[in-house]
């Protein structure tokens, strides 16, 4: 047997030259077949997608490999499907969100994707994209728009950011007057407990998660040892410190909060509708030098003192200022069209702090092409850094509180009259240019190829993704 095996080895060795030819031929035919198959796939524009099913902290370069360009690369967002008690049940319980002093039930404001009742129409000077939008509806508006975001993914490992659709502000409104702080704090604690159990949390301990609140950040920053103070402690929970919060007013000392515009009354369906509105207010005849629409505030703090001074100076001006006193019910401060027409007739709109540093009126005045006048850096300049220019002189006037108090009873009018007309025209044009970035367009907005105008939602999402990518890179470098 041994000899036969040796003979077989010799025989195979002697015939190797003859075996090479068919092997080479088969290899050639295989390569040709693969080449033809790849060509066929290319012609049919079939995209082969390779994705990973797991993710780690170092996997921050998540890519979707395709034969073409992936326009969503680096923009994918995953939406958590939360238990209904964190959003849908809050909306169903909308009667509990309504307060006694509310003129309209909060249930009505939930209409039309959170935009509220329609106010524009064929017989109106305003297009059918105008709504009586409540300033606290941002959570619902943002969620509805996010549902139709063009770069959603069901694969969380591809996501650049993870959206948590918890309606924290509306939930807080249900428990606004409860003395039992445990009841006020309960939902926030339940939410972070739920998030920590999800596989998406493990990657970055929540640092790639973000959520939107339709109230100012102070409402969620009650100290743990203060059981009688206002608000909840949601933003101060250890897990919350890892989240990114988008809110209508941020705490100026917080590292994980970013302010985004209050919702206005205008929710356009297309870029062309925005452009038409901009053209309209460029031609508006402005007969009032400056305007203030608001109510008196208690003078126990600086915000109240500033308001008092602003109202006094407006009343004492030489018919140059219009004061719309919102403490008087007949003045229709809650009528969006009346308010917009007043702002459209004014060159400058005064924006003193009120209950807090910021005001929804800032964005209503910008929408009307009225130049905002600020008295505190925290009312806009240090808030909406994603949505407004760094050079505040380009679009606004700033009057320090000290100058307001010591400059005489007509200091505001003196300052505004002293601004050259050419500069006023330039400032107004810059204000009008801001409009696309401070409105929330309809969720089904028509976005044709090549559209360059971004709305407030687009700018906010871009800011979130960029910020989280910065955190991810920093973590990657330290590993």
Automatic annotation (TrEMBL):
InterPro entries: Exostosin, Exostosin_GT47
Superkingdom: Eukaryota
Keywords of this entry: Glycoprotein, Glycosyltransferase, Golgi apparatus, Membrane, Signal-anchor, Transferase, Transmembrane, Transmembrane helix
Subcellular location: Golgi apparatus membrane
Annotated protein name in UniProt: Exostosin-like
Membrane topology: Single-pass type II membrane protein
GO CC annotations, alphabetized: Golgi membrane
Molecular function GO labels: glycosyltransferase activity
Boundaries of every Exostosin GT47 domain copy: 73-406
Family: Belongs to the glycosyltransferase 47 family.
């Amino acid at each position: 047997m041994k000899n036969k095996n040796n003979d077989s080895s010799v025989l195979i060795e002697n015939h190797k030259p003859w075996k090479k030819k068919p092997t080479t031929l088969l290899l050639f035919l295989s390569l040709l077949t693969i080449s033809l198959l790849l060509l066929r796939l290319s012609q049919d524009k079939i995209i082969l997608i390779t994705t990973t099913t797991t993710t780690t902290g170092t996997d921050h370069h998540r890519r979707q490999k395709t034969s073409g360009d992936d326009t969503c690369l680096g923009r994918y967002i995953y939406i958590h499907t939360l238990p209904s008690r964190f959003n849908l049940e809050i909306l169903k319980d909308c009667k509990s969100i309504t307060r006694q002093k509310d003129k309209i039930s909060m249930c009505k404001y939930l209409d039309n994707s959170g935009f509220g009742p329609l106010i524009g129409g064929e017989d109106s000077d305003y297009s059918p994209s105008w709504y009586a939008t409540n300033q606290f509806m941002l959570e619902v508006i943002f969620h509805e728009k996010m549902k139709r975001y063009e770069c959603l993914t069901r694969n969380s490992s591809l996501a650049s950011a993870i959206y948590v659709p918890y309606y924290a502000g509306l939930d807080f409104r249900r428990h606004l007057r409860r003395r039992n702080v445990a009841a006020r704090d309960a939902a926030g604690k339940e939410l972070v407990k739920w998030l920590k159990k999800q596989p998406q949390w493990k990657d970055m301990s929540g640092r790639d998660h973000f959520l939107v609140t339709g109230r100012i950040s102070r409402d969620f920053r009650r100290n743990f040892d203060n059981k009688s103070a206002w608000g909840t402690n949601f933003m101060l929970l250890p897990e919350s410190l890892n989240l990114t919060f988008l809110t209508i007013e941020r705490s100026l000392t917080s590292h994980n909060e970013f302010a985004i515009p209050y919702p206005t009354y205008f929710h356009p369906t297309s870029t062309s509708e925005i452009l038409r509105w901009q053209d309209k207010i460029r031609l508006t005849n402005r007969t009032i030098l400056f305007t203030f629409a608001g109510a008196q505030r208690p003078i126990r703090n600086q915000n109240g003192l500033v308001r008092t001074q602003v109202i006094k100076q407006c009343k004492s001006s030489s018919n140059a200022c219009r004061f719309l006193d919102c403490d008087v019910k007949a003045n229709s401060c809650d009528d969006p069209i009346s308010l917009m027409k007043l702002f459209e007739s004014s060159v400058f709109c005064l924006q003193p702090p009120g209950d807090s540093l910021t005001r929804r009126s800032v964005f209503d005045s910008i929408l009307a092409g009225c130049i905002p006048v600020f008295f505190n850096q925290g009312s806009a300049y240090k808030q909406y850094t994603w949505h407004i220019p760094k050079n505040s002189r380009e679009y606004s006037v700033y009057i320090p509180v000290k100058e307001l108090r010591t400059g005489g009873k007509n200091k505001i009018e003196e300052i505004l009259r002293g601004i050259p007309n050419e500069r006023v025209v330039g400032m107004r044009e810059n204000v009008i240019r801001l409009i696309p970035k401070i409105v929330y367009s309809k969720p089904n907005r028509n976005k044709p190829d090549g559209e360059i105008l971004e709305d407030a939602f687009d700018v906010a999402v871009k800011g979130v993704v960029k910020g989280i990518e910065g955190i991810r890179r920093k973590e990657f470098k330290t590993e």
